[in-house]
Design a protein that fits this description.
three-stranded antiparallel sheet, 429 residues
Length: 429
C-alpha cells in the first residue's frame, strides 16, 4: 500500500544533484571532489580538548544522564552579552534562541513563514535548505536575486507578506550580495554561515554595518559556529530576533521535542565562538582583557569556564592558518594557468567557498559535469545550489559556473584543477 503513496515534493536543486551523481564514481580511492560544502581544514586540537573536557563534565554531573537532568543556566543571558559586544547592538536574553545547527534554524523559520503567509525572496546561489524547506512547508518562493540585486520573479502566486532572505556572506560565493532595491519586505532573515575570511574588508565590519538599525521585531539573524570551527557535526547555532511570533514557533517546536532538543555542549561552544570572534577582530594586545571579559560573563551566568587565554590565542592562530589556506587556494583558482576564471562582483572575501566560471565553455555543461563525475572528478555546478532552471537562465544566462572549496588541501586543489583542465578539453580517462 505504501508504494502507491506519492513521494513528497523535492526542491529542484536536490533533484538536479541526484541526477548529476547518478552513475558518478563514488570510490574514495579513485575519485576527487573539490566543491563540497564542508570545511576541510582540520579543527583546532585545542578546541577539541576543551569540548572533550566539557562533555566529560556534563556526563559526570548528570547534565546528559536524564531528560530532566541538570543543565547549564544562563546561556541565553551570556550569549546576549557576548553578541552585543561583537555586533555592537543591544541584545537581551529574550532575543536569543539556540538551535541544533543552522539547517534546523532555517527549517524552523521557513516553516513559520509558511504558517504566517510569507512568500520568500531568495538569493541565487543559495544553500539547498532554503528551497527544500520552502517546498516541504509550502512557503512560495516568489523571486530569486543574484549578486548585483537583479530579480527574477518565479511566477508563483503572490503572498500576503514577503520575507527577504540574505546570506551574509553568500554560502556559495563567499561574497556579500546586494539585496534587491525594489523589494520592501515585511520580514528580513539574515543567515550568517561563516565569519572567518581570507581577504577584503573585515567580516565583522560588514556584519556590523548590516545589522545597524535592523529592527529585530521584523527581522532575525542566524549564526552558526560549525563552519568556521570545522565541526559541522557539532550542530551549534543561534537565532537572534525580537519577533514574538517566531520565538513562539521556535519554543513550541522545542516543547514538542522536549529534552531531546537541548544541547548544552553546542550552546557553550556558541558562547566560545562569539567571544572568539570578538578577540579575532581586536588588536592582539587586547586578547587578555577580552578573554577575562568573556570569563566574567559566563561566571555571572553560572556556566562552565571558557578556555584560558593561551588556548584562545592558539585557536586564533589556527584560524589564521585556515585563512591563509583559503587565500592560497583562491589565488590558485584565479591564476593564469587555471581552467577557471573569477566572476566580477563574486570574488570570495569570507568563508571557504568560491564560485568561478569555466574558461572553456562546453556544448552541454551539465552533461559534461556528469561525465566528469563518471571519470572521477565530482563537481558542483549552478543548478545544485538552489533555485530553478528558469531562474539560473534568467540571472546567470549561459554561465558555466562551479563551486570550489577553498578549504581543501592545496594538493587536492592542484590535482582537481589539473583534471578539470584536461576534461575541459575533452581529455577524459
Amino acid at each position: 500500500m505504501h508504494d502507491t503513496i506519492p513521494a513528497p515534493a523535492q526542491a529542484d536543486c536536490l533533484t538536479a544533484f541526484a541526477a548529476l551523481r547518478d552513475g558518478a564514481n563514488s570510490d574514495p580511492a579513485t575519485t576527487l571532489e573539490i566543491g563540497e560544502g564542508c570545511n576541510r581544514f582540520p579543527p583546532s586540537p585545542d578546541l577539541a580538548r576543551y569540548l572533550s573536557a566539557l562533555l566529560d563534565r556534563f556526563i559526570r554531573d548528570g547534565t546528559l544522564s536524564a531528560y530532566a537532568g541538570r543543565r547549564p543556566a544562563g546561556t541565553r543571558e551570556a550569549m546576549a552579552e557576548l553578541l552585543s559586544a561583537h555586533l555592537n547592538m543591544r541584545l537581551d536574553a529574550s532575543d536569543i534562541f539556540f538551535t541544533r545547527g543552522g539547517t534546523e534554524a532555517i527549517n524552523l523559520t521557513v516553516a513559520h513563514f509558511a504558517d504566517t503567509g510569507h512568500g520568500l525572496v531568495l538569493p541565487l546561489p543559495n544553500y539547498y535548505a532554503f528551497d527544500q524547506s520552502a517546498v516541504r512547508w509550502g512557503a512560495p518562493v516568489t523571486a530569486y536575486y543574484r549578486h548585483d540585486g537583479a530579480l527574477h520573479h518565479t511566477g508563483a502566486a503572490s503572498a500576503p507578506r514577503t520575507c527577504l532572505v540574505e546570506v551574509l556572506p553568500n554560502g556559495v560565493t563567499g561574497a556579500r550580495h546586494n539585496v534587491p532595491k525594489r523589494i520592501a519586505p515585511d520580514f528580513a532573515l539574515v543567515d550568517i554561515p561563516f565569519q572567518v575570511g581570507a581577504e577584503g574588508p573585515p567580516p565583522t565590519a560588514i556584519l556590523r554595518d548590516r545589522v545597524q538599525g535592523l529592527d529585530l521585531e521584523a527581522a532575525a539573524l542566524i549564526l552558526t559556529a560549525s563552519k568556521d570551527l570545522s565541526l559541522p557535526g557539532l550542530r551549534a547555532a543561534v537565532v537572534v530576533t525580537r519577533n514574538k511570533a517566531l520565538l513562539g514557533h521556535l519554543g513550541r517546536d522545542r516543547f514538542e521535542r522536549m529534552a531531546m532538543s537541548a544541547d548544552p555542549v553546542g550552546e557553550i561552544a556558541m558562547l566560545f565562538y562569539a567571544s572568539l570572534l570578538t578577540i579575532a577582530d581586536a588588536p592582539r594586545e587586547q586578547t587578555g582583557k577580552l578573554v577575562q571579559i568573556a570569563q566574567d560573563c559566563v561566571h555571572r551566568a553560572g556556566l562552565p569556564t571558557l578556555p584560558d587565554e593561551d588556548t584562545y590565542r592558539r585557536v586564533h592562530d589556527h584560524l589564521t592558518g585556515m585563512s591563509k589556506r583559503f587565500r592560497r587556494n583562491s589565488l590558485t583558482i584565479e591564476g593564469p594557468r587555471s581552467p577557471l576564471q573569477p566572476i566580477t562582483g563574486l570574488q570570495p572575501a569570507t568563508g571557504y567557498s568560491a564560485f568561478a566560471e569555466l574558461r572553456a565553455p562546453q556544448d552541454d555543461f551539465l552533461q559534461w559535469v556528469a561525465r566528469c563525475g563518471r571519470s572521477g572528478l565530482r563537481l558542483n555546478p549552478t543548478v545544485v545550489h538552489g533555485g530553478t532552471k528558469d531562474a539560473w537562465e534568467a540571472l546567470y544566462s549561459g554561465g558555466q559556473l562551479l563551486r570550489i572549496n577553498l578549504s581543501e588541501d592545496p594538493a587536492a586543489i592542484d590535482r582537481g584543477l589539473s583534471l578539470l583542465g584536461r576534461y575541459a578539453t575533452g581529455q577524459f580517462q
